[in-house]
Design a protein that fits this description.
Structural class of chain A: alpha/beta
Shape of chain A: globular
Mean pLDDT of chain A: 96
Low-confidence stretches of chain A: none
CATH topology of the largest domain in chain A: Dehydroquinate synthase-like, alpha domain
Strand order of the largest sheet of chain A: 1-8-5-4-2-3
CATH architecture of the largest domain in chain A: Up-down Bundle
CATH superfamily of the largest domain in chain A: Dehydroquinate synthase-like - alpha domain
Oligomer: homodimer
Largest interface: A-B, 48 and 48 residues
Helix content of chain A: 40-55%
CATH class of the largest domain in chain A: Mainly Alpha
Order of helices and strands of chain A: EHEHHEHEHHEEEEHHHHHHHHH
Amino acid sequence: MLGNFTYCNPTKLYFGEGAIKNLGGELAKYGKNVVLVYGGGSIKKNGIYDAVTAVLKERGKDVAEIAGVMPNPTLAKLYEGMEIARAHGADLILAVGGGSVCDYAKALAVSVHCEEDPWQKYYVRFEEPSCKIVPVACVLTMVGTGSEMNAGSVITNRETKQKIGHVFASEEVMPRFSVLDPTYTFTLPHYQMVAGIYDIFNHICEQYFSGEDDNTSDYIAEGLMRSVIRSGIDANKDPRDYEARSNLMWTATWALNTLIACGKATDWMVHMLGQAVGGVTDATHGMTLAAVSLAYYRHILPYGLKKFVRFAVNVWGVDPAGRTDEETAREGLAAMERWMKELGLVMNISELGVKESMLEELADVTLVMNGGYKALGREEIVEIFRESL
Amino acid sequence: MLGNFTYCNPTKLYFGEGAIKNLGGELAKYGKNVVLVYGGGSIKKNGIYDAVTAVLKERGKDVAEIAGVMPNPTLAKLYEGMEIARAHGADLILAVGGGSVCDYAKALAVSVHCEEDPWQKYYVRFEEPSCKIVPVACVLTMVGTGSEMNAGSVITNRETKQKIGHVFASEEVMPRFSVLDPTYTFTLPHYQMVAGIYDIFNHICEQYFSGEDDNTSDYIAEGLMRSVIRSGIDANKDPRDYEARSNLMWTATWALNTLIACGKATDWMVHMLGQAVGGVTDATHGMTLAAVSLAYYRHILPYGLKKFVRFAVNVWGVDPAGRTDEETAREGLAAMERWMKELGLVMNISELGVKESMLEELADVTLVMNGGYKALGREEIVEIFRESL
């Protein structure tokens, strides 16, 4: 049953090859001072930087740059950006990159005019902004996180060794607009592409695997999963397959813009396990999720059997005839495993650098959430990590 | 393949039993002068009128009323409302009712400050508003049209016998917020309830049946269809089944808020045929769609065979083993027919008052659109109506 909820998502999306042509018209709605945020510089090689700065120049914008935003954006980098954005009197923060760059831009948006320490306010006390929020916009170059259409922002504090995400309640934190051109993702290395594909799929799973009721959100989730499965196979064969890459971009957006969580409880336990691995190894996010998923799902399967049967039948097309519910459910996970292997995902945490001696340490830093089929005990967490080795 | 598109839908939705508690906080964001719009007065019997006016009073609003908005809101009624809203200096138009009331409120919103004749500007020339748009909000009491989260508005001109819909491009025409309480739909008569269920289902079909490519929009559409099928059966058995009614309310919103049309061509031909029947008989919209659907789909099946096979397998669970594609496709439509009969829908146009002598007249007023599998010729239209008798 759909629990009560509020839904609002005003981000305007310009989707498709050549969508950058809409950037100029949107920029005209904001003041002169733009802070351009990007990552390691790949946008300078593939021409996206030139395309964006040409539009900024054409529109007469005064641009300050924050370059070098890292895959897990740090608090130190946020402090650095706050000084730049304050000195520049930022009217708009334009993120050009993937989820990390976009996450960083949102953290910056709520911090520029914040009179307190943003880490304490937003990532320790989880408060909402009480200051003016600088508008954010995004030109997306990687898919997976859904950051282009949500109010989430993950920041890493290297001093305290904490990576904390805050999904802000205010829709003002969401990008005002995002430019989604699937061709911008064509040149991404294969490892990043498939990690992103699994990130999308797992975002959907995290919201799907709770409850056994009849809920529209789960039907939408199944549709999105089927689309990712098919497009993942196609993109893996040909990374320049526009149809596949555009579907992946669109499913990524809807996998994590709050829609499929409407009216549902969620525990995000694969992320809790994967982030523990990421904290210890600095491995790519999507691969940490892939490496722990099957052991986790096989472990909780008996507690959410009815849903795992539904997953097998509706998502993977498993025929339940002549099978027990448990056999059907396990065949669904087997089909998922075959798909993951076809994509070339990392299937165990050893490959990411985890050793058996580290399992207790991993369990120490794994947060346990409620809302799913089973609130894991410490022994279970160690066991899941052991099975993921 | 997803064609290029723009998506933006800023309507804030408060969903669930008791969601009316959010009305006061939202009203505080707007000026003092509220125009309250509603229909035939059922909201006075079921307590919704009292609940809404209590909040308006509590917030100190000065309220003008436009009552008696009819199922197909007329241009004459729009002119009448424009005078009321202008005299009142409307800061907000609050629609309390179903799709017609909400459609009317949106037509009013773009007409209050319009210096030209709104019929000519919006429904003949299909122009966008050039004047200030009065904010609209909605408390929904019937589901089906999706009007609570889109920029569509259908107005009927009785003098010219034209019923014309305009989906405005500006998201400013969309309701600023909508209150969606599934319990508000519990008391709807069975005939209206099932007509609404079919309206939802058909909205999804209209956007699904085009193209044979691989497109995320179609996967989402399949999820929504499966949800409507299941919830329709449950609600038909027990109209006070909250789970079913809440799923129906939520699928109705997403069936027609532009999401599943993203990147697709659509021809809306069932609506074109059904609206012709509605124009001649004044029958309930959802029933006119039900009565022409099967003859139409069976007619175009050979032109979109691949998609009808997919529909049969993915939506209706038809097993394609041992069947030709055509047999699989036809079995899908047979399953759909069984579901429609179980709901108690009107399955032919004779029951709505159409006689064989009227078929040519119906064909005269049926608009033919492109974007689907087959642009119908006049003889085909007559034949579909004949098979629908």
